Amino acid sequence: MAETSFDILIIGSGPGGYVAAIRAAQLGLKIAIVERSYLGGICLNWGCIPTKALLRSAEIFHYMQHAKDYGLSADNVRFDPKAVVARSRAVAKRLNDGVGFLMKKNKIDVIWGEATIEAPGKVMVKASKTDAPKNALGPGNYTAKHIIIATGARPRALPGIESDQKLVWTYFEAMAPDRMPKSLLVIGSGAIGIEFASFYRTLGAEVTVVEVLPQILPVEDAEVATFARKSFEKQGIKIITGAKVTKLDKKSDSVTATIDDGKATQSLTVDRVISAVGVVGNVESLGLEKLGVKIDRGTIVIDGLGRTNVPGIYAIGDVAGPPMLAHKAEHEGVICVEAIKGLKPHPMDKRLIPGCTYCSPQIASVGLTEAAAKEQKFDIRVGRFPFIGNGKAIALGEDQGFVKVIFNRKTGQLLGAHMIGAEVTELIQGYVVAMNLETTEEELMHTVFPHPTLSEMMKEAVLDAYGRVLNM
Fold it and tell me: N or C: which end of the chain has fewer CB within 10 A?
């Protein structure tokens, strides 16, 4: 007879859920994970991973188009939309299979179905609409000393701009188009919207981005956002800020959008629309209201260790609020499980969570923006270093961008770092480690960075903040 009682039962197998399950198994706890659709959740199957596969195809296509810039020639460069999508889906399947392997390796039971928490310690699982993987447990009643909710989030739908899966897309449809649109409207300029704008523009679509706020990439440093906007517009992306899409008129194979900037309205007709106005937590149908679990603005309220206001019930990842990032979910899951085990982990410090946008040019950041540092009354030093002053960037043919750092003038504490340019999503972790270790400017300036690398700009930016820049 299948086991029905566990130390921890985790609802959702996305990055937060499956990583929490593995860590719990490592700690000797008896674990089960409930999933209704995809092992690996949205991130591995329809989010961060397959979108990066699409963007990589676009990047290679861009380099092929500009082969002569590198002394090379490539004639009749084309792309096959179906093959590009097929590669992306194959990458997602490979990782989905990998999560299944990790569950088996760590002896974690997978329960296939939709979970409802009947009471603390009691979960009822109903049948799912999707087929269960081999050896998964089925619907039934399960008990656990601790229940972790890791159900993730879904695209936010604005009234009148809901997805119809044909003309108006969310990221689900945008990742697997039946054909490449010649023109596209992207509503929202956060990471998801900008990544899709970058992808479709690189493959030749006429792209317009509409953002309700005065700045694109609203969570980024204003200096980075300004540089990004100029770069995107140079690529041919049209950007309209401080404006709303108030109406969509659908035809058989096109959409006419009404755009209102508060002063006047304009109409824009495009083949397709992508709604990228954020996500909302999957809190419904879990029985949370009956249990009295506190929810605020569509997400579950937790402390720094993942605990809700109801003993024995925890939440991690997107369903537990921003920043809604896979790496935040993973770390939150580890912290939550270690706290349950009694290991006394450090609570989550959201100031140390990096954010990355994989557009062209890439954008990465951690900590406070310059504006936020000033709002918090810090006396600051700011340093910058441009890609054009870095030998490796010039050799790569990627000399556009900059690195920016913000220090507390009094203590030398690194408050924030912001980058735009080639491969900055790989570079940012150096600053994340420095901030986590409470590294000072003096220690960074005495660290030897290899040459020639893009990482040298990280040190030069620090030197610039203290009037000691060398190569500019």
Answer: N
Q: Has 62 been annotated as catalytic? A: no
Return the sign of the alpha-carbon dihedral for residues 317, 319, 320, 325.
Answer: positive
Average model confidence (pLDDT) across the chain: 96
Structure confidence at residue 2 (pLDDT): 65
Listing DSSP states for 113-155 in one string gives SEEEEEETTEEEEEPPSSPPPTT-B-SEEEEEEEEEE---EEE
- The residue to which tokens 């792209």 are assigned: 207
pTM value?
Answer: 0.95
Could you write out the DSSP letters of every residue in 320-370?
G-SS--HHHHHHHHHHHHHHHHT--PPPP-GGG--EEE-SSS-EEEEE--H
| pLDDT digit string, tens, across residues 299-308 | 999 999 999 9
Whether residue 229 contacts residue 238, with contact meaning beta carbons closer than 8 Å, is answered with no
Return d(Cα 444, Cα 123) in angstroms, integer: 50
Q: Give the tokens for residue 106.
A: 């760590």
Find how far residue 115's CA is from the centre of its chain: 25
Catalytic residue among 62, 146, 327, 451: 451
- Please state, as a whole number, how many other Cβ atoms lie within 10 Å of the Cβ of residue 309: 13
Q: C-alpha distances in angstroms, 118 versus 147, 167, 285, 316?
A: 11, 40, 11, 19
Spatial neighbors of 406 by CB under 8 A, at least 6 apart, are 367, 368, 369, 370, 373, 380, 381, 382, 414, 415, 416, 417, 418, 465
* Percent of the chain at pLDDT exceeding 70: 100
